[in-house]
Design goal:
alpha/beta, Immunoglobulin-like, TIM Barrel, 2 domains, eight-stranded parallel β-sheet, five-stranded antiparallel β-sheet, 11 helices, 27% helix, elongated
């Protein structure tokens, strides 16, 4: 949405927009719960809309090769190494013998997320390599049966999340499985005869039973089911998985990647990008990496700065979306230190300014040149990236009665004047925060 001077007609609309809102988002075009009312949808989505910030975790056997196969650095992201390197099924399965994450500590992972200001976690229960990081009874290709590590990380994360008040969700690759016969149908298909088989048989014997497992074994979790890569998912195949979800967790939140074009889920999922205007009629969530990979790659050190990450979060919130920011733990179960450091820095900012992110809704005023807006009830939050050198912040919003304003970090009251452009707020010479300072404008 472009920043512009507000017309008199728009001003009336904007003034109304600052009034307390009962329902701030519209329901999905195709409800997850058949026949669902808007009221039920709003209740089901309430915690997710309040959260605004979550942690994605990509963790699996691909952490063992860590981006290198046969002495060569593989292109692409770490979790795609089996596909990129055309590694035979049997050879890739041998990595399981080396996967022993003895340093994995669910409590530490959850605290890293919580201290960053994240309200939920989504972890890969099974990625495209077909390896389950929980004790699946459907296939022996899982963390307990195939590795020296005889524990269930999902169960331990569930305990830690309950303790810390964090929601836990699971990612599941339903339509791309490079290990089990019939599951390798996307892009250039199979590269190993062991992958050949019936996709319908794969769906019936692997995907549906595993989805039932992860929906049944962890109490109230998962709160989110994050599908991925829906290629070759006919309506009939998707319906089998959807039916399992509806029977076992009818109030779960699902994304739009189940497949077939019929099951649209609850959320849009732009990947590695922030849409220019968000989605006006859909809940949405940008998923993004901290460096250039989802799964761990030992040689990927292209880390985004804290400034970029934090301003991404603010930008997404200003458009009514959530930010699902990824970490890729190594084969020992350790989240890379650069990730931990950046998340801690974001968390320090959120402890002071989280009010301007959590539970906010999309700004109807677009993006000002100096930063972003978020709003909540009768409060407008001005996130200032570029602090004014002349000591006056111009807020180009007309038609509002003269509001009060203060710095969120210090609660210091600020002088506000009406101008031809809208409002002028007198600010201190120094910004409270070098990345983003928040001014609360209260009607």
């Amino acid at each position: 949405m472009k920043a512009s001077t507000i017309t008199s007609l728009t001003a009336v609309i904007l003034a109304m927009a600052l009034l307390p809102l009962t329902h701030t988002c519209v329901q999905a075009a195709q409800p997850v719960v058949p026949g669902e009312t808007k009221e039920h949808k709003d209740a089901r989505m309430a915690w997710w809309r309040e959260a605004r910030f979550g942690m994605f975790i990509h963790w699996g056997l691909y952490a063992v090769p860590a981006g290198t196969y046969d002495g060569k650095k593989a292109g692409g992201t770490g979790e795609w190494i089996m596909h990129r390197g055309k590694i035979p099924v049997a050879r890739y399965a041998e990595y399981a013998k080396e996967f022993n994450p003895v340093k994995f500590n669910a409590g530490e992972w959850v605290k890293i997320a919580k201290n960053a200001g994240m309200k939920y976690i989504v972890i890969t229960a099974k990625h495209h390599d077909g390896f389950a990081i929980y004790p699946s009874k459907v296939t022996p290709f899982n963390l307990v049966d195939a590795t020296p590590f005889k524990r269930d990380p999902l169960a331990e994360l569930a305990v830690a999340c309950r303790k810390e008040g964090i929601k836990l969700g699971f990612y599941y690759s339903q339509a791309q499985d490079w290990h089990h016969p019939g599951g390798a149908k996307w892009r250039d298909g199979a590269w190993d005869p062991a992958q050949e088989g019936s996709m319908d048989e794969y769906i019936d014997k692997i995907a549906v039973p595993q989805v039932r497992e992860i929906l049944s074994n962890y109490g109230e979790f998962p709160a989110v089911l994050w599908w991925d890569t829906p290629k070759q998912m006919t309506r009939e195949r998707a319906e089998k998985l959807f039916q399992a979800v509806h029977e076992l967790k009818p109030d779960i939140i699902m994304n739009n990647r189940l497949g077939s074009g019929y099951h649209k889920g609850d959320t849009e999922t732009p990947e590695q990008k922030i849409p220019a205007e968000g989605f006006r009629d859909r809940d949405w969530e940008t998923c993004m990496t901290l460096n250039g990979t989802w799964g761990y790659k030992s040689h990927d050190n292209d880390w985004k700065s804290t400034e970029t990450l934090l301003r991404n979060l603010i930008d997404i919130a200003s458009k009514g979306g959530n930010y699902l920011l990824n970490v890729g733990p190594d084969s020992e179960g350790v989240i890379p230190q650069p990730s931990v450091e950046r998340l801690a820095e974001i968390g320090a900012w959120m402890k002071v300014n989280g009010e301007a992110v959590y539970g906010t809704t999309a700004s109807p005023w677009g993006a000002p040149t100096w930063g972003r807006y978020t709003k909540k009830s009768d409060k407008l939050y001005a996130h200032v990236f570029d602090w004014p050198k002349d000591g006056n912040l111009t807020v180009a919003i007309k038609g509002l009665k003269l509001p009060s304003a203060y710095l969120l970090a210090t609660r210091t009251k600020l002088e506000v004047k009406a101008t031809d452009e809208g409002l002028s707020i007198k600010v201190p010479a120094e910004a409270p925060d070098k990345i983003a300072s928040v001014i609360v404008i209260e009607q």
